[in-house]
Specification:
The complex is a heterodimer. Chain A has two domains: 2-172, no CATH class; 176-288, Cyclophilin. Helix content of chain A is 16%, strand content 29%. Chain A has helices spanning 34-43, 192-200, 268-274, 290-316, and strands at residues 2-6, 10-14, 52-56, 61-64, 68-74, 80-81, 84-85, 90-94, 98-101, 110-115, 149-150, 163-164, 176-183, 203-209, 213-217, 228-233, 238-240, 248-250, 257-260, 262-266, 282-287. The longest helix of chain A has 27 residues, at 290-316. Chain A is globular. Chain B has helices spanning 24-40, 66-82, 107-113, 118-125, 220-231, and strands at 5-8, 13-17, 45-50, 54-59, 89-99, 130-135, 142-145, 160-163, 167-171, 174-177, 182-184, 187-191, 212-218, 239-243. Chain B folds into two domains: 5-82, Gyrase A, domain 2 (2-Layer Sandwich); 89-246, Cyclophilin-like (Cyclophilin). By secondary structure, chain B is α+β, with helices and mostly antiparallel strands. Chain B has five helices and 14 strands. In chain B, strands 5, 6, 7, 9, 10, 12, 13 and 14 form an eight-stranded mixed β-sheet that branches. A four-stranded antiparallel β-sheet of chain B has the order 1-2-4-3, with helices on one face. Chain B has a two-stranded antiparallel ribbon with strand order 8-11. Chain B is elongated and about 55 Å long. The longest helix of chain B has 17 residues, at 24-40. The chains are: A alpha+beta, B alpha+beta. Chain A binds chain B through residues 19-27, 124-125, 133-134, 136-137, 182-186, 229-233, 235, 237-238, 255-257, 262, 265-268, 290, 293-294, 297-298, 301, and chain B through 7-13, 15, 17, 20-22, 34, 46-54, 56, 58, 61-62, 65-66, 134-141, 143, 180, 199-200, 204-205, 208-209.
């Protein structure tokens, strides 16, 4: 059992998302940064779809009444176990009666706390993700609060050795992001100049950014006609441009349909990077082809596979040899 | 179907666009393609989302390339184009509604705005089934088409902070149901005791895009009894299956 003694700024239970109900208007939700999420589960020795705690900007404090094995990935929130600093992007053993405390994010925006075995909350429509606006999923459909008790599923043999992600798999979070986009579906509704502006001038992330979307500020983008279209489907990564000309990038909790023209869509692997950006960070866009996007997806999968193999061999290595062989 | 366009929505989305207008014929093409894809669910297609005039097809780009997927979709379109729509049925779902009073506080306003009586508003609102063009905005929210302009009424100047789930409203020429409690600016004319969205239910949604909704007036006194039946699982909404051409 794990008790939330302080929830941080905004922490919620998320998994890979609620897929299969978008035809009914149900947003996908799920983690904002699928890369850090997947790595946290791998380092915790889990399958890739277990529910985790997603923390935003400032993490929470957790006490453990029984032993556990957890992993921390994503934004560096200066995690400390019983007052002792622990390495980000690693899995580690937590003895009974421990406290795990997070502070402000030194880099990035969202940190993921995965528990070996996973968090036990009921599945709602096939997912444990919290969808705050409808108050469903996760922990009673809401963000975590002080006093909440998270039940952790028992695992047959808890790992003990620390499990650190290889350095080449740890992303660097800067304040300047280059996001690859596939133009469309409605880039033809913008002036040629607008598409060139979109691809050549940097934008700044405004304070209006959350799990639904990131509003950007910068050069206005001009539509050939008006900004409105007959509403069509909207996916995370889609870049809507309303009448103001300022792009809005849709994120995990975005609605399933929308009525503004979409100039482009951020590719999945880069959307994970955007989830680690915060107000004031700068974003620029570069057009990419389907082939380049697929290559990025394959590269992402290869990093997961590498981490899985490393995780397995760490688990199988004899306990006493911790000082050698890594 | 020669004007069908296939657009890119990221590396895992194809938008199959049948037109640029809100039109029942265009929308029925969307739903016919959605139906054949969800029934046969070809490999590597993850999910399809029907909207007014296009179908979003989400796919796994590590399993199938966009080009090959688009060829497959074109094959389905050719098949659908060749087939007559006979044998293709649609569902008409009856939605009982208690109109006026506390259930529909704006019924009187909608009547006076259109210079008719509240009874006439109810008669017009229940006179025809409405096409669910698509669902969106909130989980289960239906974008309905086909309401008479004789009861069209602008939105409230100041939206309400809280509208109970099941509220039936009018906004301009549109009518709809609020599936979950939410803020909103629609003129509320009634409320249904049915549960439109039940996330823990076997089938969480009462209706799907492509269905038709037929509102039916009930007395205010019947509301609580029906609500109890719904809560105890003893209420099955009336559903009629009719050939698409009859709708």
């Amino acid at each position: 059992m794990c008790t939330v003694t302080h929830p941080g700024i905004m922490s919620s239970i998320q998994d890979r998302g609620r897929l299969g109900y978008r035809a009914f208007g149900m947003p996908v939700s799920g983690v904002m940064d699928r890369y850090a999420y997947t790595m946290a589960n791998i380092l915790a020795g889990n399958g890739r779809d277990e529910a985790v705690v997603e923390m935003t900007l400032r993490g929470g404090r957790f006490t453990f009444s029984s032993e556990a094995y957890v992993a921390v990935c994503g934004a560096d929130m200066q995690a400390k176990l019983n007052g002792k600093k622990i390495r980000n992007w690693s899995g580690f053993y937590v003895p009974a009666d421990s406290e795990l405390a997070f502070g402000y994010a030194l880099t990035g925006c969202r940190a993921y706390l995965a528990f070996s075995g996973g968090i036990v909350v009921p599945q709602v429509m096939g997912s444990r993700s919290t969808y705050l606006r409808a108050g469903l999923g996760g922990y009673h459909g809401r963000a975590l609060q002080a006093g909440d008790v998270l039940e952790i599923a028992r695992v047959e043999s808890l790992p003990v050795r620390p499990n650190e992600l290889a350095r080449q798999a740890v992303p660097a979070y800067g304040n300047d992001l280059r996001l690859r986009v596939i133009l469309g579906p409605q880039d033809d509704l913008f002036t040629e100049g607008a598409v060139a502006t979109f691809l050549n001038s940097p934008y700044t992330i405004s304070p209006r950014n959350d799990r639904m979307g990131y509003l950007l500020e910068g050069q206005a983008l001009t539509h050939k006609g008006g900004p409105d279209i007959v509403s069509d489907a909207l996916c995370p990564g889609a870049i809507q441009v309303p009448g103001s000309g300022m792009p809005i990038i849709m994120m995990a909790d975005c609605q399933t349909t929308g009525g503004y023209a979409k100039i482009a869509t951020v590719i999945g692997p880069d959307l994970a990077k955007l989830a680690q950006a915060k107000a004031g960070d700068r974003v620029s866009f570069v057009a990419c082809s389907d082939a380049e996007a697929v290559a990025a997806l394959i590269a992402e999968q290869e990093l997961y596979q590498m981490a899985c193999r490393a995780s397995l061999s760490a688990k199988n290595a004899p306990l006493r040899h911790t000082s050698k062989g890594d | 179907m020669d004007q069908v366009r296939m657009l890119k929505a990221g590396e895992q989305g194809v938008v199959v666009e049948f037109g640029s207008e809100i039109d029942p014929t265009v929308n029925s093409q969307v739903h016919r393609l959605a139906k054949v894809l969800t029934t046969e669910m070809p490999e590597h297609i993850l999910e399809v989302v029907p909207t007014y005039r296009s179908l979003m097809v989400y796919f796994d780009p590590l399993g199938i390339s966009r080009d090959i997927l688009q060829e497959k979709i074109a094959d389905y379109l050719a098949r659908l184009g060749a087939a007559t729509s006979s044998g293709d049925t649609i569902r008409i779902i009856t939605i009982p509604v208690a109109y006026g009073g506390g259930f529909g506080p704006d019924l009187e306003f909608v009547a006076s705005h259109n210079s008719i009586t509240p009874a006439e508003v109810i008669a017009i609102h229940t006179s025809v089934p409405y096409l669910v063009y698509m669902l969106g905005f909130t989980p289960g929210f239906p974008y309905l088409g086909g309401m008479s302009e004789r009861i069209a009424t602008p939105r409230l100047k100041t939206p309400r902070v809280k509208i109970p789930a099941g509220s039936v409203g009018i906004a301009g020429k549109q009518t709809g149901i609020y599936p979950i409690e939410s803020p909103g600016g629609w003129q509320l004319i009634g409320r249904t005791p049915l549960t439109v969205f039940n996330p823990s239910g076997q089938s969480p949604f009462l209706f799907a895009a492509g269905d038709y909704l037929q509102f039916a007036a009930i007395e205010a006194e019947q509301f609580a009894a029906l609500q109890n039946q719904v809560a105890s699982g003893n209420y099955a909404p009336s559903v009629r299956h009719v050939a698409r051409t009859e709708a």
